[in-house]
Amino acid sequence: MRATLLHLLAITARPLVRRSPVHPPQRVLVIKPDHLGDLLLATPALTALRAALPTAHITALVGPWAASMWAQMREIDTLETLPFPGFNRDAPKPLPWEPYILLCQTARRLRQQAYDAALILRDDHWWGAALALLAGIPQRIGFAHPLCTSLLSVALPYQPRQHVTQQALDIVAALTNTLPTATALRYTPTDAARTWAIAWTQQHLKPDEHLIIIHPGTGGPTKHWLREHWSRLIQELCQPGRRILLTGSPAETAELTAIAASSPAELLMSSNDLTIDRLAALFAHARLVIGVDSGPLHIAVSQGVPTIHLFGPSDPLRFGPWGDPARHRVLSAGLPCSPCGVFATCPRATNPPECMAAITPEQVLAGVEALLGK
Predict the structure, then answer these.
(1) CA-CA to 132 of 20 to 30 Å: which in 65, 149, 226, 371?
(2) Name one Pfam family in it (predicted).
(3) Cα dihedral across residues 335, 341, 343, 344: positive or negative
(4) Of 308, 306, 363, 367, which Cα lies nearest the Cα of 334?
(5) Mean pLDDT across the stretch 193-207?
(6) Among 216, 48, 204, which residue's Cα sits nearest to residue 119?
């Protein structure tokens, strides 16, 4: 029913497109409703977009929950925030008509800004595609997802398991008629954060110690690894010349404390004093970062530190580390039902989720020793 309604919307709204496309486009709107890690995975596309359109005015429309990730991107001229429906993890469920009121209000505002092109950097984001159409933007580029195709002017072939970074690069290529060079993820900590990280390492590490950071938290309950597995891994990792640090957000302090309490080794822990900026700066001092599929693990990749990512319900082909496979490893149990893409509860009702429980500490330890050996 939704697909039918969106198709009817596409037909009735096409007269709202006010003018022919401009080549090259001078005003470009980038729509990205996702969270921190997803925005970081799109930074190579922003780099490619600016390189291809050096004089264009580029506006990014993102959720307020992730704006900090692009706040320092020089490729963006204007950063606007919008509470995209369905993406705020802490907000109460909206009334059925509220997302459509927001859609119409935002489209009316965007029409006044006269954009030449809109890039929908999430392949299934029909709401963003509808927003670009109602705003009268002549070039609307995204993927031929069943809910999006009729709303777009250019619908690229939809490959559900293509890496999201490559998807974003392909959209830029479609707009600019270029072949963007695949660049690294980019997040630059502030000078204040770097100064803090230097002071932290000087206070907590001996000159001959290597720092291994474990970041166990993530936004989806089914993506968590077992507490006893973390404890077993930490026990094996603790060797002379190594210091283990647990990191997380203030909301994850209780879980970090529980992991530390169940671990026989003496650990460092940091959460209440951490910001994304400080976390990135601290990652740069690590010899290795270990965690589950999460935004902070992608931040670690952006800082050039080797990483190990534990994947269960999420798809590493789409959301795996964007970097050298020799330095960034994905570990999974390889169950037939994985990846399922369900992050709230296991569809097979296993608790803890079998796909995460089946990843053994021994597997992770083998990956650790291989990377540290290099």
Answers:
(1) 65
(2) Glyco_transf_9
(3) negative
(4) 363
(5) 96
(6) 48
Number of other residues whose CB lies within 10 A of the CB of residue 101: 11
3-state helix vs strand vs coil in the chain, percent to 5? 40, 15, 45
Enter the CATH code of domain 191-373: 3.40.50.2000
Q: Is the pLDDT of residue 22 over 90?
A: no
Q: Domain spanning 2-176 has what CATH number? A: 3.40.50.2000
Rg of the Cα atoms in the chain:
22
Residue ranges covered by each domain of the chain: 2-176, 191-373
pTM: 0.93
pLDDT in tens, 122-150: 999 999 999 999 999 999 999 999 999 99
- Give the DSSP letter string of 66-134: THHHHTT-TT-SEEEE---TTT-TTSPPPPTTHHHHHHHHHHHHHHTT--SEEEE-STT-HHHHHHHHH
| 341's tokens | 């893409």
Between CA 108 and CA 79 the distance in angstroms is: 18
